[in-house]
Amino acid sequence: MTFMEHVKELRDRLKVVALSYVVSLIFWLIIPRDLTNPASLLEGIYEPMLSLVLDNVKSLAGDELIIIAGRLASPLEIYFITGAILAFITSLPVIAYETYKYINPALYPHERRSLYGFMAAFIGLYTAGALFSYFIVVPLIIRFLAFFARVIKADPIITASDYYMLVLSSIALMGLLFTTPALFVLLVRFGVVSTDFIKRNRIYIYGLLYILIAIITPDGWLVGNTVLFLPVVSMIEVALIVARRYEKRREELSEMNAKQCKFCGGVVYPDNPFCTSCGRSQE
After folding, report:
1. Which end of the chain is more exposed for a tag (fewer CB within 10 A), N or C?
2. Does residue 186 lie within any of the structural domains?
3. Is 23 a residue whose pLDDT tops 90?
């Protein structure tokens, strides 16, 4: 394909992504929550699909916090910001598929397998991080804030904007933080970083990681930071073991003065251009 053909393909795929995002946005902001009662809008009891998510987020506060609107425009801002975030999450499969189809012709088979593994790990870890934040970290933060409000004899009141942004940002950022091990393994597999570097600088890396977690955690308190810090460190240690396997593979090939097959990942010796596994020529 020529450069302009690549640009046109990129344009077409971006159109699909944009359309999927708009459809997702309409779904969350406009489609009625109760599909069994389409006349709810006329009856004055209409609620969009978005309210399902907001109800669950609000339930995390329980009786610990009193949520108020604050500014008059805050509910409208929360409505559209939350809708935009949910539309992005909903359209992520389409974004991932269109991205993959665009770069797929440039990938060798073993690179595709690496990408499949990385995407599966990334999605799984992100989901685990988001759920961990939703069920454990955020409730702990809420109880902590409410406890000290009672200590100083104050009503635990929070504006709706602050509350929903606290919960949504915590879930999104902590989900991303949980994907760190998958990204690390991918970088090691492609030779960008080494496991020895992590092992030699553990104390500094984990110190910076704790500072980052303290910044991400909205309240920045010791217990909340530790609850999130320990699982991430555990996953990084497991990632070191997994990544070391790929390094050993590279070292073995280097000792044999061989290289990896660009089609199947097998062994190719310097005196033979054909892969010992799939038999395909590297030239």
Report:
1. C
2. yes
3. yes
Instruction: Identify whether 273 is part of a domain.
Output: no
Taking each helix axis from N to C end, the angle separating 138-151 and 222-255, rounded to the nearest 10 degrees, works out to 150
The count of other CB atoms within 10 Å of the CB of residue 261 is 22
Phi, psi of 36, deg, nearest 5: -80, -10
What is the residue range of 22's domain? 1-106
As beta bridge partners, residue 68 has: 159
SS3 47: coil
φ/ψ (deg, to 5) at 68: -120, 160
On whether the pTM is more than 0.85, the answer is: no
Give the model confidence (pLDDT) of 28-46 as tens digits.
988 887 766 666 556 656 7
Span between the terminal Cα atoms of the chain, in Å: 21
Q: Is residue 268 part of a domain?
A: no
Q: Please classify residue 247 by burial: count the beta carbons closer than 10 Å to its beta carbon, then call 0-12 exposed, 13-18 middle and 19+ buried.
A: middle
Q: Are residues 99 and 145 in the same domain?
A: no
State the Cα–Cα distance between residues 83 and 180, nearest whole angstrom: 27
Same domain, 93 and 183: no
